[in-house]
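Input structure tokens:
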């Protein structure tokens, strides 16, 4: 028996569990894409699989709906694949281990992939059913949304006839998302010079942070492990004068759009420096940071682990200084709040990944703004600062925002259905995060979009959970909208 066999609706959770058995982290989507193709073939459904591994499946209209306009249902097949540091799993090859208490679903030691596995499960349940009434369905499942909407950029939508699109990539039930921020990925690539250095190696690690989605959670101002690690290195090297400290490597985070919860640096100090002095120096800055984050992120922890003695390839003094000063000089977090939508972040960025490879340290940021000129200005600011440190900038995956459509017939219909079902109006919302509606709107003239989804928490983290009851209600609502 599967872990979700007793949950309703059975078809939805059956397909959700099947998906969870196929590793499908971003950039590891071949297997999940082929699974979708097999699903279509087994049911004699027309399908398209492109070179980017996007899949479009066409579902025939049920009896009485043959003359109705097709509806596009859309989600993405990839997930942010992260696991706890002490949980032994290879998420590129091993399935998720789902658990449930009947009210929520989570995965042991890993992220769940409710974002956006629930969309795929909804779509497959609809395509598999011969009892749910609906017009012709054009189901679009894209690849690598979490790493820059690569699939949405690559996909050819010309075969689609529908001009009403329901995106299923939101995370709060009862909310109709009607616009979102645009964004881009920014890389700062800093060249480093290495020297041989003898001494004792230590690992300095930041952990225990809340983390979360860098769009929806950035407003909570959780600690960023990469930024904090840069601060530690600056303090230990300059403020507290631990002599002869050299940097071997610095690495942290898993994705640009996930607020990093772990970051680690390996350093070498001379044998004359005692372990107590190193511990004391890190403890001093830890006390300061804990005070600052006592309410926002109280679980933050700094760990120092003594390793072996030897000779190591280290950054030279100038390279090490540039690394931590660049981390501290580049902005991070909220840059501006919306003047027109109370409580909505307008512009932000997140240092999601730091990685050391050979003679380069790369900083990777997710940049977001609902105002295109503000996004462009922030990217230019990043370029200027990066250049001052002798580093190279690269901007990729720039995608447009999704503007509010004041004449949306789809929104009117979905509000009306919601009121009839629940006796209240849904919330009409904007989001400081990217969904693929903006890109789809650029490709299909006259496209009318709404984004919905069930309640989720902790997305992009190992604390991710999906509400069972909310998933059931949201599916019921989607079916009623199609009916």
């Amino acid at each position: 028996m599967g872990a979700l066999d007793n949950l309703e609706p059975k078809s939805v959770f059956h397909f959700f569990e099947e998906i969870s058995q196929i590793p499908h982290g971003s950039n590891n989507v071949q297997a999940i894409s082929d699974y979708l193709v097999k699903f279509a073939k087994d049911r004699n459904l027309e399908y398209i699989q492109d070179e980017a591994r996007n899949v479009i499946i066409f579902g025939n209209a049920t009896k009485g709906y043959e003359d109705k306009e097709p509806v596009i249902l859309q989600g993405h097949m990839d997930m942010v694949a992260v696991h706890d540091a002490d949980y032994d799993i290879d998420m590129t090859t091993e399935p998720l281990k789902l658990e449930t208490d009947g009210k929520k679903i989570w995965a042991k030691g890993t992220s769940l992939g409710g974002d956006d596995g629930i969309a795929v499960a909804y779509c497959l349940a609809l395509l598999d059913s011969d009892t749910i009434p609906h017009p012709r369905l054009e189901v679009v499942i894209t690849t690598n949304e979490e790493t820059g909407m690569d699939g949405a950029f690559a996909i050819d939508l010309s075969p689609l006839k529908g001009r009403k699109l329901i995106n299923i990539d939101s995370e709060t039930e009862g909310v109709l998302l009607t616009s979102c921020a645009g964004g881009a990925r920014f890389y700062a690539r800093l060249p480093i010079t290495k020297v041989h250095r003898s001494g004792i190696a230590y690992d300095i690690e930041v952990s225990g942070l809340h983390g979360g989605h860098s769009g929806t959670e950035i407003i909570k101002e959780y600690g960023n492990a990469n930024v904090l690690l840069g601060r530690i290195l600056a303090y230990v090297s300059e403020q507290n004068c631990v002599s002869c400290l050299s940097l071997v490597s610095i690495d942290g985070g898993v994705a640009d759009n996930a607020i990093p919860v772990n970051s680690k640096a390996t350093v070498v100090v001379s044998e004359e420096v005692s372990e107590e002095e190193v511990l004391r120096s890190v403890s001093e800055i830890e006390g300061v940071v804990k005070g600052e984050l006592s309410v926002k992120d109280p679980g933050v922890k700094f760990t120092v682990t003594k390793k072996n003695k030897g000779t190591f390839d280290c950054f030279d003094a100038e390279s090490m200084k540039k690394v931590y000063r660049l981390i501290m000089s580049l902005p991070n977090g909220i840059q501006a709040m919306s003047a027109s939508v109370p409580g909505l972040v307008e512009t932000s960025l997140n240092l999601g990944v730091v990685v050391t490879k050979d003679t380069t340290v790369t900083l990777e940021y997710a940049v977001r703004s609902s105002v295109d000129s503000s996004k462009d200005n922030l990217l230019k600011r990043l370029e200027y600062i990066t250049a001052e440190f002798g580093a190279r900038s690269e901007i990729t995956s720039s995608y447009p925002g999704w503007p509010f459509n004041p004449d949306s017939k789809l929104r009117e219909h979905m509000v009306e259905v919601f009121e009839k079902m629940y006796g209240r109006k849904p919330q009409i919302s904007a989001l400081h995060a990217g969904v693929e509606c903006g890109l789809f709107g650029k490709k299909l003239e006259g496209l009318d979009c709404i984004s919905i989804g069930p309640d989720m928490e902790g997305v992009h983290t190992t604390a991710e959970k999906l509400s069972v009851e909310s998933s059931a209600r949201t599916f019921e609502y989607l079916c009623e909208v199609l009916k």
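The first strand starts at residue 46 and ends at 49. The domain at 192-358 is CATH 3.30.70.360 (Alpha-Beta Plaits).
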